[in-house]
Specification:
Blueprint (H helix, E strand, L loop, with lengths): L1 E2 L4 E12 L10 E7 L5 E6 L9 E14 L2 E15 L15 E18 L2 E17 L13 H5 L16 E3 L2 E3 L10 E16 L5 E18 L7 H8 L8 H10 L6 E3 L20 E13 L2 E13 L3 E3 L9 E2 L5 E2 L4 E3 L3 E15 L2 E12 L10 H9 L15 E13 L4 E21 L13 E24 L2 E14 L14 E2 L2 E2 L6 E2 L6 E10 L6 H4 L2 E10 L3 E2 L2 E2 L12 E2 L6 E2 L3 E15 L2 E10 L35 H13 L2 H4 L16 E9 L1
């Protein structure tokens, strides 16, 4: 909305969204009837089709922008805020009788101030300051942050829950055949919390000394503050451990004993920026918040000489993750006193190093004819590692190494960024005044991707039973080549079109950090096997196509009914992605160590997918400056059951190969077992979802049809 002769303008937006099922799937429901559990209890196994319980999400979000034109200075102030509440417990049929679901809460917001100063026709500069924060927690909906009471029957009884057999004993699950079901009122939650904040500054100067050159210099600086607190064990067991160990530590206060439990083999607390008990901490040492720094500077010159446009650039990137690592990872006993409750030894740790890189970039374009433009690019790029792969509480690391967790959740405390070298070549062809297409071929070479690695211990270990352990390191590489065709049609006789068709071949030694997680435990000739085979990457799609059609009537067009009305259709096609058929035990889809491939890696492909999304909307002028837009959006118009993942044993979604295999199906069970197994592990594929850490996407299908009605007000 403009004010003061259009010198001041502001924009505001509010959005509310509620999802009964945040990840909708075409679940068929279950209707087996009454089944008697092993202990004599019984339950009615009936579950409705469609949306599942315990997967809701509700959000309120706000955004606003204020522009002030003080020619030659322009000031832009913008901000956002979001309040999100969600269920944070992976919903399963085996929790269908328990409505006590873990809840999550998250807040995030940002504030940005940008100043643009036009000095003259040849020069201007921009400076922006920004602040962002995100904080959240997960918790039991009743006991909330009092996690020491999660396993106390008296605390639970205040809210009407009486499932525990004794005060500090966990409820015993119902059991039928080979399946456990949590009883109503069972605490399935863990209290966790995190806090992420950053301050950033960006600046750039653009100088056009003549018609040939356009120079730009700039830089950015980001300072983060990262905090996290969680535990590795189900917190409903903590109070029982505390009561059992009081006699063993008579000299410790209640607080000291709780810290001892959380630090050691009963807790493995994962904390930084908070102390052991979860109180915010701003000191130094092992509990200090991580404050990584990322900075960059660049210079580029756009040269326009006659018909040739040349872009030359050079970028410098810097990263310091502000982390500690063991001085000698092959001798962890010099950094951790395993015999003394995994006590951290300060002299055994050191700061990680920083990284910096210089990346050149070159682009060129020139006309081949009056309707054809040739273009080519070369560039080197650096991508910072995910901070989740870098940070882990030091007590948690000590716990995993001391307990010989083979899988665990390893980190690479000093991972280098991933480097990409990219080449592009292509041309743009104008077909008519309103239609053109672009053909681009590309090649990408990616190095130093994050991968599971084995840290081999020195042979003179003084700690009995301590074994080699997993870590993350740079190791995987990948190459991607392909070409892309894009058609663009400006609106012509009410119709606008954008279409894209891409062919791609992506191959490498690993699709994601966990790719070789299972095979790392396979000893080959008395050493641990590190795979280096080049195979199709799991996320690769040989063919992708998108078509977006928009047909719209303008103001004073189409009569009173069709005026300012339009419809847009989005069509998305994707060929399947590679997967590897395998054989193994009953939990083939879960534990990768049970998986044995029966074909070359990536030799099979999931089915292709095709989806249509339709939006119809109409705008109304309510009065002078207020306009309303009413719309209906139908996602997956034809309710296509697009298969995105399959069972690795069979390559299908309707049979995991267990029921019909006598060597895998337990003997002595009848039709009720078959029906229950099919519902749990096939129709709701819980074995597959249990492998979520090993897969890029645990769900089998794309979203089913969804219909959304909405209204937007513009002033």
């Amino acid at each position: 909305m403009p004010y003061f002769e259009n010198r001041v303008k502001f924009f505001a937006n509010f959005n509310y969204q509620f999802n009964r099922d945040n990840d909708p799937q075409p679940y068929p429901g279950i209707n087996i009837g009454n089944i008697v559990f092993t202990n004599g209890d019984s339950a009615n196994f009936v579950y409705p089709a469609g949306a599942i319980k315990g997967n809701r999400r509700e959000s309120y979000s706000y955004a606003g922008t204020l522009n002030i034109d003080l020619n030659p200075v322009i000031i832009r102030l913008s901000g956002t805020y979001a309040d999100i509440t969600f269920d944070d417990y992976r919903p399963t049929l085996q929790s269908m009788f328990n409505d006590r679901i873990e809840k999550g809460k998250q807040f995030n917001g940002s504030l940005n101030l940008k100043l643009t100063h036009v000095i003259d026709n040849e020069m201007f500069y921009e400076v922006s300051l920004g602040y962002f924060y995100m904080e959240g927690n997960t918790r039991d909906p009743y006991l909330k942050g009092d996690y020491w009471s999660y396993g106390d029957s008296l605390a639970n009884a205040k809210y009407g829950f009486n499932a525990q057999p004794s005060r500090y004993a966990a409820p015993v699950d119902w059991r039928i055949y080979t399946f456990n079901f949590t009883k109503p009122g069972t605490v399935v939650s863990n209290f966790t919390k995190f806090d992420r904040r950053n301050f950033n500054i960006n600046a750039s100067l653009t100088y056009n000394p003549n018609k040939t050159h356009s120079l730009k210099l700039g830089g950015e600086f980001i300072q983060y503050t990262m905090r996290n607190w969680s535990t590795s064990v189900l917190q409903s067991s903590l109070i029982g451990t505390y009561m059992n160990q009081r006699a063993s530590y008579p000299g410790l206060t209640s607080k000291e004993l709780k810290e001892t439990i959380l630090r050691g083999n009963n807790g493995g607390v994962n904390n930084y920026g908070y102390d052991v008990l979860g109180e915010e901490y701003d000191g130094n040492g092992f509990y200090a918040p991580h404050k990584p720094i990322m900075a960059a500077a660049y210079i580029q010159d756009k040269i326009e000489y006659q018909d040739i446009i040349l872009n030359l650039g050079l970028r410098w990137d810097y990263m310091d993750v502000d982390n500690l690592q063991m001085k000698n990872p092959a001798r962890p006993w010099e950094s951790i006193d395993f015999a003394n409750n995994n006590t951290l030894l300060e002299n055994g740790w050191e700061a990680t190093r920083s990284f910096s890189y210089v990346s050149p970039r070159i682009g060129i374009s020139f006309p081949v004819s009056d309707k054809t433009m040739f273009h080519a690019q070369f560039g080197k790029f650096v991508q910072y590692p995910r901070l989740v792969d870098v940070y882990q509480g030091y007590h948690r690391t000590a716990y995993e190494i001391g307990q010989n967790f083979f899988f665990g959740s390893p980190t690479g405390r000093n991972i280098e960024p991933t480097k990409t070298t990219q080449y592009e070549i292509g041309f743009t062809q104008q077909l008519t005044d309103f239609l053109s297409f672009d053909l681009t071929a590309y090649y990408k070479d990616v190095k130093d991707q994050v991968v599971f690695a084995k840290q081999v211990l020195d042979k003179d270990s003084p700690v009995a039973g301590l074994r080699d352990y997993n870590t993350l390191a740079n190791g995987d590489f990948a190459t991607t080549k392909g070409f892309e065709v894009t058609f663009t049609m400006r609106r012509y006789q009410r119709l606008q079109m954008n279409a894209n068709l891409s062919f791609q071949d992506a191959r490498g030694t690993g699709s994601y950090p966990n790719s070789n997680r299972g095979i790392m435990g396979t000893p080959v000739e008395n050493r641990f096997f590190q795979p280096v085979y080049i195979s199709p990457l799991e996320y690769n799609n040989d063919l992708r196509a998108n078509l977006n059609l928009d047909y719209r009537f303008g103001v004073n067009d189409g009569g009173s009914i069709l005026e300012q009305m339009g419809a847009s259709l989005l069509v998305e096609y994707s060929s399947g992605h590679p997967f590897t058929r395998g054989t193994g035990g009953i939990d083939l889809e879960g534990d990768a160590r049970n998986r044995q491939p029966v074909e070359p890696l990536g030799a099979s492909t999931t089915p292709s997918t095709l989806q249509f999304d339709l939006r119809i909307d109409k705008s109304f002028d309510i009065y002078d400056k207020l306009k309303a837009n009413v719309y209906v959006l139908i996602i997956n118009l034809f309710d296509a059951k697009n298969i995105e993942n399959v069972f690795l044993r069979t390559g299908t979604t309707d049979d995991d190969g267990v029921i019909n295999d006598p060597s895998l199906r337990p003997a002595g069970y009848g039709a009720d077992y078959d029906a229950l197994y099919k519902a749990i592990n096939v129709d709701y594929y819980e074995q597959y979802q249990a492998a979520g850490g090993l897969q890029t996407a645990p769900y089998f299908y794309g979203s089913p049809r969804q219909i959304r009605l909405g209204i937007k007000l513009e002033y």
